[in-house]
């Protein structure tokens, strides 16, 4: 499956460019628990994004924030928003992102402490709202080796099933 990023227009992703983005551009329905890209695709995407754009390029999350592309937003406030992942890896899988982009957790500044804490509290509150009373996993990928494919800090919250260890 080819999920390569467009070298000509990094923010314009078509269904033929990356199957993960199909739902933004079509009304296609797919089985709820069937991811569109494999884990190896995620690593490859992370390597390509890092190589092409570094951590300064605008991301697809910018368009989620300004609502120029659709997303299943389940929470928002003046600092962040939470929305369902387009390729869920668990029965419940959502992301929490800051409105002000921080490319990577490793690039967060001391001034970001309050915002980072807020993201985790929102993750906890939305997990409760989603009935994840039995527990859930919170993940932040950082950089190429962390398989970060979108260079806008995002907190993954996964739950609704028993998680395994080690994760990767």
TrEMBL record:
The record's listing under PROSITE patterns reads: HIT_1 (PS00892), HIT_2 (PS51084)
Mind listing the GO molecular function terms for this protein?
A: catalytic activity
The record ties this protein, via InterPro entries, to: Histidine_triad_CS (IPR019808), Histidine_triad_HIT (IPR001310), HIT-like (IPR011146), HIT-like_sf (IPR036265)
Show the CDD domains listed in the entry: PKCI_related
Q: Which catalytic residues are annotated?
A: 154
Catalytic activity field: adenosine 5'-phosphoramidate + H2O = NH4(+) + AMP
Check the UniProt entry and state the signal peptide residues, or none. Answer: none
Q: Where is this motif: Histidine triad motif?
A: 152-156
Query: Where do the HIT domain residues begin and end?
Result: 60-168
What the entry lists under PANTHER family is as follows: HISTIDINE TRIAD HIT PROTEIN (PTHR23089)
The text of the family note is:
Belongs to the HINT family.
Q: Could you identify this protein by its name?
A: Uncharacterized HIT-like protein Synpcc7942_1390
Q: Give the organism's phylogenetic lineage.
A: Eukaryota, Metazoa, Chordata, Craniata, Vertebrata
């Amino acid at each position: 499956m080819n999920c390569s990023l467009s070298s000509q227009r990094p923010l314009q992703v078509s269904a033929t460019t990356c199957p993960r983005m199909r739902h933004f551009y079509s009304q296609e329905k797919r089985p709820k628990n069937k991811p569109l890209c494999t884990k190896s695709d995620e690593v490859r995407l992370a390597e390509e994004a890092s190589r092409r754009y570094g951590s300064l390029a605008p991301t697809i999350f910018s368009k989620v924030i300004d609502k120029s592309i659709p997303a299943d937003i389940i929470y928002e406030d003046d600092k962040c928003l939470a929305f369902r992942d387009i390729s869920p890896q668990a029965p419940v899988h959502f992301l929490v992102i800051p409105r002000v982009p921080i490319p990577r957790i490793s690039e967060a500044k001391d001034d970001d402490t309050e915002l980072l804490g807020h993201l985790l509290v929102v993750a906890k509150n939305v997990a409760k709202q989603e009935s994840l009373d039995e527990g859930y996993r919170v993940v932040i990928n950082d950089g190429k080796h962390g398989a970060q494919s979108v260079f806008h800090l995002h907190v993954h919250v996964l739950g609704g099933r028993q998680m395994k260890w080690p994760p990767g």
